[in-house]
Each structure stands twice: as C-alpha cells, then as structure tokens.
Amino acid sequence: MVAGNLKMHGSHTQIETLLEAIRQEAQALSSVDIVVLPSFVYLQQTQNILSNPIVEWGAQNLYLGISEAFTGEESGAMLVDFGCQYVLVGHSESRHVFNEDLALVAAKFKAAIDAKLQPILCLGETLEERKQGETKKIISQQLESVIQAAEIKAFRHAVIAYEPIWAIDAGSTATPEEAQDVHAIIRKWLGQYDSAIANTMRILYGGRVEADNAADLFRMADIDGVLVGGEWLEAKSFLAICQAAC
Ligand code: PEP
C-alpha cells in the first residue's frame, strides 16, 4: 500500500492535477493499493475525480459520534458519505500539535471502526524517547490503549503506520533496518493477541519516504507499504514511490 497524506496542502487546481495524474497511471500500478488522503474540503472533488475507484481515498481525521454539536468536526458517517474507505487516526501532528491523548486516539479508532472505515493508526516515538531507549514502550502504550477501547478483532479492519516523529517532515529518515526493527516489534506485539491478525496486518512506514529510499524500505520483511507526506504534492514523486512498490 502507498498512502498519500496531503496534510493542509493543496487547492482545487492542484488537487485536480494531482489526482488526474494518479488516476491515469493507476491502471499500470494495479499491484499497489493506492490511497489518497486530502483535506476534508477536497473530499467531494476527490470522489468526483476518482469515481471508478482504482485509487481509494480517505480523510486525515474524524471526531466521535454521528450527529452532534461539535462545531468544526467531521464524523465517520460524513466521511463515508464522501466515499472514504480510510481515515488517519493518531497522526503525530494530531497527537503533538493538537494534544490528542491516548484515550482520544483510541476513541477515534473505535469511531472509525464503528463507521465502517479502516483506520490507519499512526504510531511513533519522539527523538528524545528513542534516545532514552523507550521506542518499544511508547509503541506498546499506543497500541495497548487502542486495544482497550476497541478490542483486538477491530484490527482486522485497520492499517498501522509506524511514523517516527523525528522523521516526519524532517531532514532525517529512519533507515530501512531501523524501521524494520519497529515493524517487527509491532507485529510481535499483535501476535500475543491474535497471530492471524499479526500476520496479515499491513504495517506502513512513514517519515520522509522518497522515490530514492522507497525500494529499500519495501524490501524489508515487515514493511508492507508507506505513508507519504510532503512527497506526494508532486504526482511524479508519488507515482515513482508507487512504482518502487511494484
Ligand atoms: C506524514 O506526515 O504522514 C509523513 C509521512 O510526512 P513526510 O513524508 O513529509 O515526512
């Protein structure tokens, strides 16, 4: 899987150019599950352009409940209304810029499952935590809180993205080996609960993935795809990453 997180980027014109280019190339990339995650305001446009979904799409966040007095928020049901199949949950920018804590991320994961969306659950440690040797502890806490809210069987309908915070939108990226080590920890952790879920779970890596490092990441045993941020502003770079996955 190659998923593109457009963050708070884009305009009507840019989205059209990007998605048209991706749509045209997608047929030749049918061995890759391509998912695009534009801002909420471009979901209608995304649905129109990708109406025959070789490429799937989703949103970057959701809130709890179905129809509530939560000004400025979007429910899972609303995302489904726009043809979304996926939603990011617990992205490091949501956790660290908007202070989403473990309980809220877990509740959002459950809200996504309840709405029949596939959450792409983002996990990751800060540089400080990595230096302190706490990566495994942090990842386990992030997973544990979700299992408490949603139960292990919910993971059957989820995707996990390991996104070390020190590599998001940053100058450095994890080496394939560093990413593989954490992916293996995640799979092993899931395996204590359910080996079938652990074996089939798609675990993506995110954090400065580019066409140049994508192929090496895809070669690792537990890396099943990538979550791309900045790179997919350019359709050409995003498609080069998809090509590396074939
Ligand atoms: C992201 O924000 O999910 C991400 C992977 O960003 P970048 O590729 O820009 O590091």
Strand order of the largest sheet: 1-2-3-4-5-6-7-8
Binned, the helix content reads 40-55%
End-to-end Cα distance, whole Å, is: 10 Å
Percentage beta strand: 5-15%
Q: If you average the pLDDT, what whole number results?
A: 95
Distinct ligands, ions and cofactors found in the model: phosphoenolpyruvate
Q: Note poorly predicted spans.
A: none
Number of helices: 11
Structural class: alpha/beta
Overall shape: it is globular
Q: What's the gyration radius in Å?
A: 17 Å
String of helices and strands:
EHEHEHEHHEHHEHHEHEH
Overview of the structural elements:
- This protein is an alpha/beta fold and 246 residues long.
- It contains eleven helices and eight strands.
- It has helices at residues 12-26, 43-49, 76-81, 92-96, 102-114, 127-131, 135-150, 176-191, 195-200, 211-218, 235-245; strands at residues 2-5, 34-37, 56-59, 86-89, 118-123, 159-162, 202-206, 225-228.
- Strands 1-2-3-4-5-6-7-8 form an eight-stranded parallel barrel, surrounded by six helices.
- The chain starts with a strand and ends with a helix.
- The chain binds phosphoenolpyruvate (PEP).
- Residues 5, 163, 168-169, 206-209, 227-231 line the site of phosphoenolpyruvate (PEP).
Brief write-up:
This protein is of the alpha/beta class. 44% of the residues lie in helices and 14% in strands.
